[in-house]
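Please, structure for the following, as tokens.
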Amino acid sequence: MYSLLRHLLLRLPAEAAHDLGLTGLDWAGQLITSPPKPLPVNLLGLNFPNPVGLAAGLDKNGDHIDSLLALGFGFVEIGTITPKPQPGNPKPRLFRLPTAKAVINRMGFNNKGVQHLVRRVERSKAIQNQAIIGINIGKNKTTPNAQAVNDYLFCLDQVYPVASYITINISSPNTANLRELQNHEALLQLLAPLRDRQQQLAVTHQRQVPLLVKLAPDLEQVQLDDIAEVIQQTEMQGVICGNTTVSRRGVSQLPHGRESGGLSGAPLKKKADNLLKSMRARLPDQIPIIGVGGITKGQDAAGKIKAGANLIQFYTGMIYHGPTLINECVNTLRKLPFNPDQ
């Protein structure tokens, strides 16, 4: 069924297909696939039904949480969300590269604002069923980097009561200068107050919600040294490797291949895997890593685990392969001689 739906959706403009696909998922998602058998993972103090998750970006506002979980994901990450609603960048801003199984987006954190997202999570069946929902937070476009911490703190306060874990997004290429927050001093000035606030919120709400950092795959090795140092200094609970890339290697000759924005999908795999391996080598084993980027088949997911990831996520791969990719990844990981628990 999904092959037919994909054929129809690929005939529409990319963003229209994205919106229509999510609407269709709400109506008929469970007819497309059957959830995989459990492959439990205990990590970050959470019990994941399986180690395969949905990456942030597909459901920015938390409007489709229950439908996405019903497909069989072990967890979903929603967002990126900002304090105030914002329209994002001008359209067109989403481009498919089908022959490369890739997407370029320059969405620009378009979202309905953090309070809308929190209301959606509160009303979901997922939170009643204690499903694992990660919430990805960012800053508004108009907020300068010098005041960025205030946006992140505001979002942290708002989402803490309903999140299973919270991801600090400092690596999108589509918000001007955002990636500068990955520099050593800027990162320290951002993460230290967030960790302090997290500890205060843990006391207030009587629950621990882990904080993770999402990194760009375009960082230099010396930058990774600095980031690993700050992550350990501030005692962050996890890392997501990683976001989309600004590289156009292998796709620049394709239609839309030179559009600005972040590239995801199959061409991202090598860069994402290198980031994962580099961070795993720099961080102690007790700091979990979620591997993201370039997963289009089960063996790609297995490669992330072998490279040091504890969990994996994808988004673009599902556009081209459908929800059956969830089952394929879970069943491939089931055969691995690994223990992802921490």
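The chain has a mean pLDDT of 94. The CA atoms of residues 196 and 274 lie 31 Å apart.
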